[in-house]
Design a protein that fits this description.
OB fold (Dihydrolipoamide Acetyltransferase, E2P), five-stranded mixed β-barrel, disordered N terminus, 9 strands
């Protein structure tokens, strides 16, 4: 899997959800992919606010969640509470669907969490950007078997270059909800580390 797959992951849900099976949509998606493929090697950090807030400043009822090692344990069923609404995107000059997160997910934004998933290895140079999925590769979002809410960008503190495809790994880190930056997944796990089960 190469870097272009990660870009496709980041933007494809916008096109897959709005696809009307006409050549127009396929053509637009292809043009966008081709026009920025060369920029992927130097892709910037996500444009969403990645500042990690002070844990004590967040008003939430901790009894609502299962906790482990001072992190909220989340699962893919919780992350599935998303709908999509069409909004205009200047970059591609068309309406594309953006995620609208359930209020329960907003409570998890910028919280320290544990999440387990199947690793979909990338050919990233620094070994710090990965994708995890609720499904193995054969039925994952990229193969058309699941939605964009079933995958997550994982930005690890340390480089990891030896993940095997479909390895099941638990990560801890800070969860960010992304409803703006089309070059990244709708979920981003920042400052992630591997959790030994």
């Amino acid at each position: 899997m190469n870097k272009i797959i990660h870009f496709i992951c980041g933007i494809s849900f916008f096109f897959l959800l709005s696809c009307d099976h006409e050549n127009k949509t396929t053509s637009v998606a292809s043009e966008v992919k081709d026009s920025i493929a060369a920029e992927l090697a130097n892709r910037p950090e996500p444009s969403i606010d990645l500042t990690i807030p002070d844990k004590d400043s967040i008003d939430m009822d901790s009894s609502e969640y299962k906790w482990k090692d001072d992190h909220i344990v989340i699962d893919w069923q919780m992350l599935g509470k998303v709908i999509y609404e069409d909004r205009y995107n200047e970059e591609v000059d068309t309406l594309i669907p953006y995620p609208v997160f359930h209020p329960s997910l907003h409570k998890l934004d910028k919280q320290r969490v544990h999440i387990k998933g199947y690793v979909l290895p990338l050919s990233e140079d620094d070994g710090k950007l990965h994708i995890i999925s609720s499904n193995p590769m054969s039925t994952c979002f990229f193969c058309g078997g699941a939605g964009p809410e079933s995958v997550m960008d994982v930005m690890t503190v340390e480089a990891h270059t030896s993940f095997e495809e479909d390895a099941i790994i638990t990560f801890s880190g800070t969860l960010f909800l992304n409803d703006e930056d089309v070059q990244h997944m709708i979920y981003i796990l920042k400052n992630a580390e591997i959790v030994k089960d």
